[in-house]
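Subgroup meeting minutes
Present: P.N., E.W., G.H.
Scribe: E.W.

1. P.N. recapped why we're keeping a running log of single-chain structure predictions: easier to compare across weeks, and new members can see raw inputs and outputs side by side.
2. G.H. added today's entry (240 aa).
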Amino acid sequence: MAKKDFTKVDVAVVIPVYNEEEIIAEVLGEWHSELTALGINFMIHAYNDGSKDSSLKVLRRYGRGKKHIVVHDKPNSGHGPTILKGYRDNLSAEWLFQVDSDNEMSATSFKELWKRREEFDFLIGRRDGRASPISRRLVSLISRLTVRLFYGGGVYDVNSPYRLMRVSAFSDAVKSIPAGTFAPNVVISGAASLKDMRIFERDVKYNFRETGTVSIKKMKLIKAAIKSFMQTIACRSLLK
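Output recorded in log:
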């Protein structure tokens, strides 16, 4: 694939991808169309996290010849570490935006965050209408309470995968978070509260996934939640 110049863009969009062969081309197409229509100088970075299906093949085929899409292939390290790598790779952009590859949150709501960006440092699409099992709701509650207790209560949906971040405000935090952190977005939400950043949250419609599979289930989810809880507390001392 030809090397692309993505060092000077208004917004770098980070999309972690794992086993989403059925939907990823549609997701990339929707975001490419929306950002183009808004007249934004953007680059979409799709990070294939060692998918076991044909996601990488689909990504490469879709991204071929498109100057605003860069496909990255990497060994599997998990959703959180992949997101963090995406952030670190793109700190030269003015803004970072992260969204997941499952199409549960549409690109059409992005403009509502983008038009408010000059007033804020951290703009979040709060998941509206999310119908999750009680185990996932419990994990979300614990994450929110952990951030509130150890960092401050500035953010409600602390792990939302729909977040626009001013790089100049977050670059130090992104560099400080350990590479293997399970849920870096939770820590980043904490950093925003800790540093008293200007925060904006807006409801964004959440659509239950129709393709792919949830990567963490049942007891693995509980173990992951405990790991995230401990790491979130530990990261508090690393943030400047």
